[in-house]
Amino acid sequence: MYIKNIFLNQVLGEINKEIEGVTKITDPLKVLANADTMKMLGVQRPLLQSTVIVEKTVQDLMNLMHDLSAYSDQFLNMVCVKLQEYKDTCNAAYRSIVQSDEKMVISASWAKDDDITRLLKSLPNWSNMAQPKQLRSKREEEEDFIRTAFGKESEVLIGNLGDKLIPQQEILRDVSDLKALANMHESLEWLSGRVKAAFSNLPFAQTSPAQDAHGKTDLPPVLEQILQTLTDLARSFQEMADSCLLVLHLEVRVHCFHYLIPLAKQGNYAIVANVESMDYDPLVVRLNKDISAVEEAMNASLQQHKFQYIFEGLGHLISCILINGAQYFTRISESGIKKMCRNIFILQQNLTNITMSREADLDFARQYYEMLYNTADEVLNLVVDQGVKYTELEYIYALRLLHRSQTGVGDQTTQNMRLQRLKEIICEQAAIKQATKDKKITTV
């Protein structure tokens, strides 16, 4: 009776005190375990102090359960209760970061959207996280496959956002919040694994009890309901960890929209050649600064393959946003084109330093704007001579922008004729491509 009435309550009291010491504080997501603890646990990136303490209490309770096996259900119930409470604490802390005045930031609402989440998790860059970049195959088709995936992602995100200007309150501006999400991701993923490992050896109610080396019963069978609760909790922690990572992945992308959509919609690119035209756009400078700050925080907080997940494909999205932005410029001059190319160059330089890859997608955007040095008719000739590099819509944006920007380009009827000619050229090019493909197949 002593154990049941006094000892169990005493254990619970001590555990509550220990957990509350790390969770009932301001910003529990910003207090990390010290270096010695990390070394002892053998982890590569910082873990939250609260997660480490919660995991320790789980281990302590599991040890007590082995020592006092008659009370195993009570100890396991305590484990379930403490994990559930910690899950609630983490949920509240997560909401405090991604939500203000009942409204979630865009990245979190996207991460909550089943369609977007399903798409992101179906793409190879998500599954590639299990395999660091240097170990992945270097096959050319693999590269194409991943680029197609980036294309899908960019298309969905641009489609979701449209041409909406994103107000500051809908992005996470404080890098320490992003760092907290990264710490939470690593911590909850680690906790999920530890919880699974802790109960993986427990005997099920329908199986024979666990036995020691002498064949004696060590633990009585565990109720299936308790095992199910533990399984659900472990899965919940992993899902929360995934959500944090998706928010980080999406947040960096939302920042790109935040800065680059106003660049085209509100920027003046019909400028004459002067000192101003040689400057980078302040919005691009700020985006670069943002990306660099996020990189620094993520590098310290996330394992390398997850860090790669945050930044890989970002160049593709930026390229898409910039090309898509051509429709919003009122007019663009040669100096404006030059300025855009300079903007693209410093974005590319910054990203290349982060991803250690060429970021060729931004070459694609730069070449698009360089195409605008031509007249509308010259652009059509380029499509004939060089083949179709962009989508029909992207060419339409270019032709319309040239029509708005250049003098002596003819009236709307002339413009419509050009657009019709563009359609014909694209159809012709597609037919030539198909014929060449068929010829190759026949030859083989």
Automatic annotation (TrEMBL):
The keyword Protein biosynthesis does not apply. Keywords: Exocytosis, Protein transport, Transport. GO terms for biological process: chemical synaptic transmission; Golgi to plasma membrane transport; protein targeting to membrane; protein transport; vesicle tethering involved in exocytosis. InterPro entries: Sec8/EXOC4. GO terms for cellular component: exocyst; growth cone membrane; synapse. Belongs to the SEC8 family. Component of the exocyst complex involved in the docking of exocytic vesicles with fusion sites on the plasma membrane. This is Exocyst complex component Sec8. It comes from Python bivittatus (Burmese python). The lineage of its organism: Eukaryota, Metazoa, Chordata, Craniata, Vertebrata.
